[in-house]
């Protein structure tokens, strides 16, 4: 696991997402940044894989990243 401060992470994330060894889990900013990552095809919809766990999460946890 690699930790980067905010600005370094923002600068490195596009390269990380374009690599063949992209991370399985990332933090992203909701809105335009997240939408552009989805449109580029570098993120995967996890709605189905987490469907069995969703009811154990507070509603706000998932709602903030819906587009």
* Classification by helices and strands: mainly alpha
User: Total strand count, please?
Assistant: 0
Q: Looking at the structure, what is the overall shape? A: globular
Radius of gyration: 13 Å
Determine the N-to-C terminus distance.
27 Å
Q: Provide the residue-averaged pLDDT.
A: 81
Unreliable spans are: none
> What is the beta-strand fraction?
under 5%
Count helical runs.
3
User: What share of residues is helical?
Assistant: 25-40%
| Most strands sheet | none
What order do the helices and strands follow? Answer: HHH
Structure description:
The chain has three helices and no strands. With about 70 residues, it is mainly alpha-helical. It is globular.
Task: Chart the SSEs and their pairings.
Blueprint: H1 6-18, H2 32-39, H3 59-63
């Amino acid at each position: 696991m690699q930790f980067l401060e905010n600005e370094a992470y923002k600068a490195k994330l596009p390269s990380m997402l374009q690599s063949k060894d992209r991370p399985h889990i990332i933090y992203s900013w909701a809105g335009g940044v997240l939408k552009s990552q989805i449109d580029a095809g570098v993120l995967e919809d996890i709605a189905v894989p987490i469907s069995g766990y969703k009811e154990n999460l507070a509603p706000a946890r998932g709602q903030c990243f819906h587009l």
